Amino acid sequence: MRRLTRSSLDPRWSIYIDPQTLNNSHPLNNLVFSSAIILICHQQHKLIISSINTTRTSMTTSLESEHPIKAYGYAARDTSGELSPLTFSRRATGDKDVRFKVLYCGICHSDLVFAKNEWGITNYPMIPGHEIVGVVTEVGSKVEKFKVGDKVGVGCLVGSCKSCQNCATDYEQYCPKQVFTYGVPDVDGTQTHGGYSDHMVTDEHFVLRWPENLPLDSGAPLLCAGITTYSPLKYFGLDKPGTKVGVVGLGGLGHIAVKMAKAFGAEVTVFSTSVAKKQEAIEGLKADHFINSKDPEQMQGAMGTLDGIIDTVSGDHPIAPLLNALTPHGKLVLLGIPMKPLEIAAFSLIMGRKTIAGSNIGGLKETQEMLDFAAKHGITSDIEVIPVDYVNTAMERLAKADVRYRFVIDVANSIKTE
Ligand SMILES: [Zn+2]
Ligand SMILES: [Zn+2]
């Protein structure tokens, strides 16, 4: 047994090679591989797994043959996050499955995080993309909601247990057995792959009906960024006309949060550290107020003014000034994921019975409701449409927040099946 040292991995992790497993051609090799990686990062134990290279080789082979239908996509293969073409396969259309040709796929910030394995749970190769819009090409014998030719969408989830309390109440996003659209083991043990690919096969429960008048390209980002902002606005009662809502950060999530809140009739204040975004916020997105969150005077001026704040920022940032900006009973809802734990003085919550909460995407029923709401109110994402061979440059630009506000890949016209 020998130890592999890989500088690209967290130095706390150790990976050992067991030569007896080198020729292991078990069809679930990639599941074994993924489980090992997950255990390593959560428990920091030394685990015996097959050679990474050998496993990868067999994964590449099995990826093409593990399912009957050939598929083609763009995959990240290591922590560089660089994406390159990958031939793989998708399952045959099951009784409840919808097969669809992908037309457009948004590039979410999570795609970048997963591609670079920043959360330590990525299995390579991995095809990202969970803002997927397409047209149905085949339906299973028991599919009720869709027919060939329908426009459809798939967001962040492609599976859940369908029997727990969360699933029974349309909160599949909190099901402990939820299956993400990419990068995790699917119910059959193979890995899920996302929308940077020529087609998808998805259980109809996780497929959304695409509203007639909602654009396919600029509507695609709603499947993650749209529902992620719509759901907390509804759940925390910030969807009433006249409600005073703050939006922190003006990126992919933030700009949609402003549009959603405005459509609900809220008075919207944008908080940003970038003064250059003031004009975009007020003139472009029709926000009512703009506050430079680096300016203590402006922050002081906002004290006690907001019923709720949607915080979309993932970089580390102070929370206390945002709590000050809330009215009594106000709610601060976190959507971003700062790596550093928050520092909160209990006093700032107690004086005013304030709430700090988090929220994650939305259930399927609510996602459909959100799409219909967006179509009715003309809400779409501001986008830059790109061909798939621009994706690595797009990822670099996304990392620098150099996009207004979402890249969307023109999949149908740029990913060609070999
Ligand atoms: Zn996303
Ligand atoms: Zn469940």
Automatic annotation (TrEMBL):
Cite the GO molecular-function annotations of the record.
oxidoreductase activity, acting on the CH-OH group of donors, NAD or NADP as acceptor; zinc ion binding
What cofactor does this chain's UniProt record say it requires? Zn(2+)
Q: Which InterPro entries match?
A: ADH-like_C, ADH-like_N, ADH_Zn_CS, CAD-like, D-isomer_DH_CS1, ER, GroES-like_sf, NAD(P)-bd_dom_sf
The keyword Metal-binding is assigned to this record:
yes
Q: Name one Pfam family in it.
A: ADH_N
Gene Ontology biological process: lignin biosynthetic process
PROSITE patterns (alphabetical): ADH_ZINC, D_2_HYDROXYACID_DH_1
Q: Which CDD domains match?
A: CAD1 (cd05283)
Give the Enoyl reductase (ER) domain ranges: 81-409
Arranged from A to Z, the UniProt key words for this protein are: Metal-binding, Oxidoreductase, Zinc
**Which Gene3D superfamilies did the record assign?**
Medium-chain alcohol dehydrogenases, catalytic domain, NAD(P)-binding Rossmann-like Domain
Query: Which family, according to UniProt?
Result: Belongs to the zinc-containing alcohol dehydrogenase family.
Name listed for the protein in its UniProt record:
Enoyl reductase (ER) domain-containing protein
Organism encoding this protein: Tagetes erecta
